[in-house]
Each structure stands twice: as structure tokens, then as C-alpha cells.
Amino acid sequence: MQKSVIRRKKLSIGSFKLTKTDVSGWLLMLPFVILLIYLYILPTIRGVLWSFFEMKGYNVGEFIGLENYRIVLQDTSFLVTLKNTILYVFWSFVIGYLPPIILAVMLNEISVGKSFFRFTVYFPKMAPAIAISMLWYYLFYPNESGLLNMVLGFFGMEPSKWLQNSSMTIALIQVSETWRGMGAMTLLYFSTLQGINRDLYEASMLDGAGLWHRFKSITLPHLFPFMLINAVRQVIEVFQIMEQPFAMTGGGPNGASMSLGLAGYRYAFQFFKVGNALALNVIQFVMLMGLTIIYFKVKSKIDDDV
Amino acid sequence: MKRKLSFVLAMVILALCFTGCGSNNDVAENGETVIYVGGCPVKEQAPELWEQFEAQRLGFMEKYPEIKVIGDEYNYSMDTYLSKAAANQLPTIYYLPFTEVDKVMEAGYVADVTEYMEKYGYMESMRSDVLEKATRDGKVWMVPIKTYYLGMTANKEVLAQAGMLDEDGYVVWPKTFDELGQMAGEIKAKTGIPGFVMPTMKNVGGWHFMNIAWSYGATFMEKQGEQWVATFNSPECAEALQFVKDLQWKYNALSDNLFIDFAEGRKMIATNQGAFHFAVLDDNLFKPLVMQNGMDRNSIAMGKIPAGPEGQYGLLGGSMMAISSTATPAQIDACFKWLDYVGNGPKMSDEEKQVYEQSILDRLEIGMPVLPKNCFNVWKSGEKVEAQDAILAKYTDMDERNLEDYYDTEGMIIKAEEPICCQELYIILDSCIQEVISNKDADVNALLAKAANDFQVNYLDNVK
Q1: Chain A residue with minimum CA distance to B11
Q2: Which CATH superfamily is domain A67-305 in?
């Protein structure tokens, strides 16, 4: 009976069929769909189109084909910048991938003061940006008055130049970025852990399983799908890194921490070469699109498995 | 009911999303010409400044009832300019530093004001070298209102700690770069405070380095036929860069912190963490030093950048007023009336003298230093400059002897920025400076060869 009612009220547009319930849902989504198109899809399409034109500010000039792409790809620093961007991704995994998982597992295991620790973990995300930048400024200050150098001094070691050492710059920027972003990721992992049936842990404990065995046999398999998705998300996010090198090193020393995102910012806002910035962003977009496709493939495989 | 509710909710959200879209260049309301004036102080942050602006605004509208002035808090910033311009949200008239003039003109966001410059007497009264900065293809695109040259500031407290003031307590200015290096090194050796603050980031290092390089005889580019060619891979520029390297490795005069931008450089001087630093004598110096960090105005001394083998240079800088390219002729005319009213025009009637005097009193009220006289004016010397100087002399709260060396421009070569791709050049030079300061073994010649090639391939070859 219910089925026949729904069938009678279906609205067909070609092969696309809408029920009365669908209409209500779509209507509610309409503003967001419009905004999505207006704020994301249209600018993206426009950006791709404009990258083939000579731009004066945001005024479109004559069609110049691939000229903007030639300028960007022939830039003598392009390959170095691309390599740096990949290094950002690499260091973000080495430094930043495991800590949120470890913290989430620890949070999940403790029974006293859980709320306090959850707040503490999330605190860096809430702290004012200025305070955080001051904190890292004094931590990495490259003489004896720097906080980290004081620690080195305590152990009788020479002060380090930290961010000024070009071989360490990207890794250290990722340390600060991990510290700042870790809280949010920890809470996401934590919420996944909270979804695991506690009976499984209790049963395994009755069977005599230790902490490591419980982690390996219960926690990890449940976390793994989220870990995989988060890995892809992290690549996409870090590939666009801009603010941190801009604020901490300006891309230096001597270009050692320059990223594609920062190069795009320079083209657009420091040089007003919007066409070049768009071409670089399209190149970045294509690379990220490839990664996004991988992301969705991974996600759908995981969804199927689950 | 549910569907109706969904529809209403959808429409409300849509309406909210598009609320606020609009232009900042309304032409008229009830026959009035409306202009939006940028740089209006934020009431909550600076109530005294806001009140001063409001008094000017109301006084102007009383004099010109057909014009309505609306204060706009926008001040030029690299991050927001393009977006504001594209959305037609720029004020009708706003401040712009000299360094940004070319980019903005090229992007087409400023109005041709040649006709009004003639009409209001700017063309005949303004110094030709200043006017040239606002002129392209025979047309004037902006209104220069302030100008200066890059000099060198000194923190007298730090110099006093190092025992390096003369017997009257004034700065003995280094005449050559070698003297500067030695003095700066000695200051650091005696006090532990960097003797010289060398910026390295966000284009500022390159901007300051130009002055040193010119003094050593370096050139940065020249036009050969239709093509611009980078010329700074030269022994002269290498000598200049070697001086910067020596500041760190020979004289040991610099800060341990490599990453110094415009704000950090000024903060270091203001908080007694640096002795000498290139700067200009205007509010860009006073605001961070005196207003934000509470430095005693009479601890600030100002002199010239030392001379190199090929002369003593100071980079010409300043600020202009830009008028939006979407402004109507009536709005442009109203903007020029506003400029005249607030004392930025070429005339100096009794009324304008009063407005200028009031502006000086306003400065004193909020604690902003008042100079003893104009140093480097946009106007050819004449009645206006004399009238302003008389008012300044009456109210100054600074010791003129601290500024004598800067005021004396005899023998100085005050040079405008390079003709094209300045910001791109400064960024490339920033990198060279970072490398020579952070790496004792940096090869100056190799760095300049790479930098000149990068500048040529990445920028000059793409100039049409």
C-alpha cells in the first residue's frame, strides 16, 4: 500500500525520478547546492578558463593559450618548490600521522579525567594564533635564549639554528603544524574508538589478551578504515600548505621552505600575476584531483568491506 | 506543512547569503555625490582618531552640502586588494604606498586623474620627480601626498649603552659602509645587542639592499632594444652583497634571528634589540616605535644611509591617494575637494592652515610625534611648505638635532625604485641575503649569477 502511494506521486524527468519526500529534501538542500555552485564550482571553472587568458588584476584580457602554464612550468624554482611540497607531505606523515592515533588510544584507555585530557588535547586548536606564533618563535629562537636551545644547553649541547637550518626547516614547520592540528584529529580517532563494542575488549581480557594484543586484534582493525581515509585527506591538505611557511619563514631560508601554495600566493597577491597564479593552481588542482580519485576509490572499497 | 517549512527555510538562507552584496561606489543619493574615503580609523580601536576623522568629515560636508563623505576603514593590504577591487568594494579614494603603484595601475583599478590634477593646481606645484612616479604614458593615475627617502634610524639608548654617543649625547653617524659595519660590530661586542638590523623577509630585505647596491655602483636592469636585461650579476653588486655577508661573519653585528620582516625590524629597534636600521622618517616609523612600543621619541635619531664607492643613495618612497577606476567624474572631483580640505592639496589658504594646524594638535593629543619641519615634501618649495613648516616648528616635540643628518640631503642621490618587476626582484634578493647571512661559505658570485638568471627567465623575459 505504502509503495503504491509513493509510486503515484513520483515526478519523472527523463530517467531521473523524484518522490514527494525527495522534493522536500532537495528544497532544503537548495541554498547549499546554490552556494556550492556559486562559491566553489563556478570559481573553479572560471579559474580554469581564466588561466588561458592574460589577466589584469581580475579583469580578463586576451586569450593567450598555454602561456601562463609555460611561465609557471619554466620558472626556475618550480621543480624545487614541487619537491619541497612533497617533502611537506612526507614529513607530515613521519611526524604527524601517528601521534593523534596514539593519543586517541591513550584517551580511550584512561578512565579518570577523560574530559580534562580531551580538552587539553584540543587546546592548541583553540589558542589564539598570535599566542601560538609567539610560542613557536621563542621555542625555535636560534640562540641561547631560545626555549629549545635552553634544553640543549642544559645537556651541554651547542645551540641549534632550528628553522634557519635549511635541511630542517620543512620538518620543523611540520612539527608546529602537527602540534596545532593534532587535537582535532585525536578527537576524530577517539570518536571512532568510542564506537567499538566494549564487549569485545572484555571478552578478550577474559581470554587473557594483553594491551598490545587487544590493540592489534580489536582496536587497529576498527581504526584502519579511518586511518586510510585520513592518510589521503592529509596528503590533500598538506599539499596545499601556505600559511605556515608564509608566517614562519616566508619560504626561506633561500627558498628551502617554499611550497606550491605559497608560490601561488606570491604570484597572485605580491606580483598581481593572477593568470600565473591560476595556472599554478590548476596544475596543483590536477595533481590533487588524482589524489582525490584515489581517496574515493579507497573510501568506496572500505565502505564495501564494512 | 513540512514542505512549506523547507521552502521558507531555503529562501531565508538564500536571502541571508546574498545580504551584503553591493557596491562601494554609489553615485548619488538624493542628488548628493557620495564618496567613500579609505583609512577611516576604527571607532572601537582608536576612538580619538575616529573622532578627529569624524570632525573633518562633518566640517567638509558642511562646506560642501552636495557631497556626502562616508568613512571606510579599508587600508591597502596585499592580501585583500585584488578581491576588494574585483568585487567593486574599494573605497572611492584610498591610500597606496609607492611600492604598489605599478601593479595597481597595470591592473586597471585606478582612475585617470590628469584633468583634475591640472584643475586643482597639482601639476604646477608638485615636484616633477614625485609627479613622475604617478605618471604613465603621459597620464597621471594617482595623487602623491607624502614622500620620503629611505634613511637610517638609530636607537640612542642602545648607542648610549655602548658608549657611542658624542659628548653632547648625539649620534655620530657612520659615513661609509665599512664604518657602519665596524660600529655595529662594536655595539654588539659591548652590549650583546645587534648593531644593525638587516631585514630578510617579505620583500623588505631586497628593498633595503637596493640602497647599498646602488652605492656600490650596481645596476639591476636595463632595456636593450625591446628587451629588459638583468644586470646585477656584476662585481659591484657582489661587493654590496659581500658587505651584507660581512655584517654577519666579519663584523658579527647582526641578530641571531634570520627571519626579520618589516614589523620585526621595527619592533627590534623599539624594544632596544637593535641599534641601526634602515627606515623612513614618517608615521611608519613612529607608529610601531612610539605608539605601539612606547619608545621615547627623543631616543629616535635619523640619518642618511652611509655612502659607498659610487655615492650616497636613498630610495624614494611615499604614499599616494588612489581613486577607484569606477568613480564618476563628480566623485573624482569630490575626492579632490576632500584632498584640498584635509590639507593634501597644493593650496594653503587660511582655512587650510587651520585644518593643518588642527591635524597637528590632533597628533599631539594622541601622542604621535610632531617633526620640527618637513623634510622631503611633494611640493616645490614655496608658500605651502613654508606655512606647514611654521606650524610644525610651533608644535614640534622632537629634538631637531637628532634628525639633522637626515634633513641634510646635500650630496644625496635620491633614486626612485627600479622601473619594472620590483617586488619580484626584492624577493629574489631576500633569498640571496638569507643565504649569505645563514651560510658562512655562501659564494656571493654564484648566488648573484643564479639570482640574475632567475630574475631574467622568470620575470623579465615575460614582460611585454
Answers
A1: A31
A2: MetI-like (1.10.3720.10)
